[in-house]
TrEMBL record, chains A, B:
Higher taxonomy: Bacteria, Pseudomonadati, Pseudomonadota, Gammaproteobacteria, Alteromonadales
UniProt KW Protease keyword: no
SUPFAM superfamilies reported for this sequence: PLP-dependent transferases (SSF53383), Winged helix' DNA-binding domain (SSF46785)
Matches recorded under PANTHER family: HTH-TYPE TRANSCRIPTIONAL REGULATORY PROTEIN GABR
Domain of life: Bacteria
MF terms in GO: DNA binding; DNA-binding transcription factor activity; pyridoxal phosphate binding
Keyword list, A-Z: DNA-binding, Pyridoxal phosphate, Transcription, Transcription regulation
Transcription recorded as keyword: yes
The organism of origin for this protein: Alteromonas confluentis
The protein, known as: GntR family transcriptional regulator
Length: 473, 473
């Protein structure tokens, strides 16, 4: 990258982060040159780049100004799913996306994989390989059915910072959060029964509902603060809901954090109707707020909350280390976990336990929080630049995915097909519903590995959009 | 071990393996001394040890003779389980045994873990830690939903030697055989439906039946050649059986290999009634016969057989690498596998794939076959020496577990409790039934890690037996 490009990138970031307000005057060419120790022509070249990108405007005789503020991006409004229990479909769409993993692509927006190239992960990887080298026998035997006791002690410490009071024996280690959710669903509901879920909601949980022969009742959900408690109460008055499955802290796909009072209201409602809550907290530790928001489980004084999580979003999904704090369902959960896949491999548990104990986990989280928050801000700005004004976007308060609602005339499935030909992989919205809603929506991974290629990909998407209108049906 | 002890051990083995027939004359002291290049007193000392153990008798002026043959041990007769579909119980017993894993003990007969100390496993372990060192990123990402393609290619080769014609895309890698069985049960039967199983049968499969809300119909099973086809037909005439779950090649717990014609008859019966077969082949590769017996799947010309296996018995359970060749159920199996635990960790798959490709797997199997066969023979002989004459024992044709039927007046559960106090861990028989049958039976792991301590443990068990009679109920 040449000097002027570097300078342009830096100025652009400062504008996007709001250091220079819209319509405000930028430093003069002479001033910037002396500030950055570069030539006048370097500054002029940098300003020309920003002008071309419509981030700044040049006014003759007056200098350079930040462009006028465009309308802020709106958030999606509260969703309006069908108000009755439904069978889950859309597996074909999920499968197609899963089979896309690992396919060479220019830009992968579809997956929910964290940044795994950070140097803060190095101590963990070193520990893992040393365990494989020096204690291979530990990796060959069956371990404890509830998981390694040392890791469970660390889980007890970690969850304390989310407001929970749990002991090592209160945890069951699982093969990722997917197994955790699947086991919990089977533990709390019998075939044919109804589970209330957020809408949109995580497709892996929806598909687990399908496989357990349960029905999904999608509850209207707000992109700012989550599942509507009023709508949930109405639904529960009308239908024999057996459990609520929610991702209240850094939701997938929307990224919101449900406010604490609302979490409490949700818990009380579950208590009133005497049903279970499955709380998916997989992104909870990478909420941007620190200390992290408290869980629903933190209110749980009668063991009805099954808290599920994993290290797939905070460290790496390939380790397949997740866990459940199943409350009063521990015996049933242990049974179903055992028949599902027996014990979990020991060495990743040992390595992660050590990583937490020695402080590596907190250091890594701290780096990721900063990284993802910055990436979110840049992504939101890029979306504002490239997408139609009526586009709505959720405002993630943690994690690395966001939810986009295109104007209703667009077909995200068509867009995904076209984009794939250009090497850009998308996750269309309908997978995040039991019944194929959200066909005009998309979930984006916004981790900013290479901003130039992300920008180019978003520009390409915006160019493809006009051809991707819904066919009149 | 001193010279005379070495010689005694060698002679004992030769007697047990039948090189010297019962009541036949043994070589003279002088002859043996010259043959083995040891002193006369060493031979005399060795013969004295064998005499004390009642394996040989000294006849004055005539020399040493092998002891008269004792009555051969009888095999268990065909089982007589209740002839109706039952809910599976006994989880508490299974859990208690699982929680015993890893507890310090003098002698562990209860688990079904293979010998993992063999030097033939070294290349695999080396490859695993090298992958962890040099390709950690491969271990962090999500892999292919069906498992690593390279491993699946090797599975295609492996199963060819069991008579199958399968391509890499015909496999779905799972988290051990437990996940394979659990996924297959859910793929072929709906809650409330009936699955026919062997009796006795593997407790992990029984518990998976319970968790999937299915009913088990235990079919009379012969310790020599497996499930009775006649009894199965009768049962299927009477009940709407949805699938048959069998372990026909090196059965767990009995160790028999179902003859090929009988496998064919079983397959044809499934075809006639148009139902699925879940074939658990987890011990198939360590049948003592080489080349290994063909699978039921080898007859499968219409995709109704779901072949399940893993490397837990051939390599080590801790790797948690199993697989399914699901035939016509592939789509459903892929779905349920995905919701159950998402993808499997990649590095163990890469390491095992390489181990097979480079010939290490075959070398290891060959060593294990010899090792286990010899251990079986010694175990059978020890059982004959220590247990009451009416004790019946299965004759494993592979693997490393056998099934013992004590005279009916004994209570194996009581025996297990007493034995535990002496540091000897047992697997009582009732777990191998849906409904608590086989209370007078035990499954033994017969791997001979330390023959002296195994012998001592068996002697202790025989001494405890008289106190372990069934209470009159």
């Amino acid at each position: 990258m040449s000097r002027y490009q570097q300078l342009a990138a830096r100025l652009k970031e400062q504008i996007q982060l709001g250091y220079f307000a819209p319509a405000s005057r930028l430093p003069s060419v002479r001033q910037l040159a002396s500030e950055h120790g570069v030539s006048l022509s370097t500054v002029q070249e940098a300003y020309r780049v920003l002008e071309r990108d419509q981030l700044i405007v040049a006014r003759p005789k007056s200098g350079y100004f930040v462009a006028e503020e465009r309308k802020a991006i709106s958030r999606p409004e509260q969703s309006k799913p069908p108000q009755r229990p439904m069978d889950v479909s859309l597996w074909e769409d999920v499968l197609a996306m899963l089979l896309g993993h690992g396919v060479d692509a220019v830009c992968e927006f579809q997956h929910a994989m964290p940044d795994m190239a950070s140097s803060t992960l190095k101590p963990l990887l070193k520990s893992l390989y040393e365990l494989n080298r020096h204690r291979p026998q530990d990796g060959m035997k069956y371990g404890h059915i509830q998981g390694d006791a040392g890791l469970r002690e660390q889980l007890s410490r970690l969850t304390a910072s989310a407001g929970c009071h749990l002991m090592a024996e209160d945890f069951v280690v699982t093969s990722g959060c997917q197994e955790a959710l699947s086991v919990c669903l089977r533990a709390v509901a019998e075939p044919g029964e109804i589970v209330a879920v957020e809408s949109p909601g995580f497709y892996g949980a929806m598909q687990a509902i399908k496989a357990a022969n349960l029905k999904a009742l999608e509850i209207p959900t707000d992109s700012r603060d989550g599942m509507s408690i009023d709508a949930l109460r109405l639904a529960m008055d009308q239908w024999p809901v057996k459990a609520i499955l929610v991702t209240p802290t850094v939701n997938n796909p929307q990224g919101y954090v449900m406010p604490l009072e609302k979490k409490q209201a949700l818990y009380q409602l579950a208590q009133e109707f005497d049903i279970a809550i499955i709380e998916d907290d997989i992104y909870g530790d990478i909420a941007f707020d620190y200390p992290r928001p408290k869980t629903l489980k933190s209110f749980d004084d009668d063991g009805r909350v099954l808290l599920c999580s994993s290290f797939s979003k905070t460290l790496a999904p390939g380790f397949r280390v997740g866990w459940i704090a199943p409350g009063r369902y521990r015996d049933k959960v242990t049974h179903i976990k055992y028949v599902s896949s027996s014990m979990c491999p020991t060495l990743p548990q040992l390595a992660i336990g050590r990583f937490i104990r020695e402080g590596g986990y907190e250091r890594h989280l701290s780096a990721m929080r900063q990284h993802y928050r910055k990436a979110r801000d840049l992504m939101l700005e890029d979306i504002r630049r490239f997408f139609p004004e009526q586009t709505r976007v959720s405002y993630p308060e943690g994690g690395f995915v966001l939810w986009m609602e295109l104007p209703k005339k667009y077909d995200a499935v068509k867009l995904a097909e076209r984009a794939k030909q250009a090497g850009i992989i998308l996750a269309p919205g309908q997978m995040f519903s039991a019944t194929g809603k959200y066909r005009h929506c998309l979930r984006f991974n916004f981790i900013d590995r290479n901003h130039a290629s992300r920008e180019a990909a978003l520009r390409t998407l915006s160019e493809l959009l006009p051809e991707c209108q819904l066919s009149p049906s």
